[in-house]
Amino acid sequence: MSVTVDLSGLERMASGLEQRRRQEEFARRAALMMRQYVPVEEGALRASEAISSDYAAGLLVWSTPYAAKHYHVPMRHTASGTCDHWDEAMMRDSGDKLAAYAETLYEGW
Fold this sequence. Notes:
Elements: E1 2-4, H1 8-11, H2 16-35, H3 45-52, E2 59-61, H4 67-72, H5 86-105
Antiparallel strand pairs: 1-2
Helix pairs in contact: 2-5
């Protein structure tokens, strides 16, 4: 299961290593903000993101055999605040904060 962030508008503002650094920093922040919504009941789902993601490419990946099920199938999660579609939940609750963070990454460009 992967979440892709469309940075196409921002990519024109910088290039090369600097762009990659900013993209990586943004992806790490997005992952950190999403983490609280990712279920913890079964195995290593939450921890798999840090191991499987390619932050510099802007790709967040949860790589367990049951990741897609926990993402797509509504379940009764026992850990408070966790849910399916954790990217959408984070954006609903904190998307404005993530957008503001992205703006700070590109100030002065």
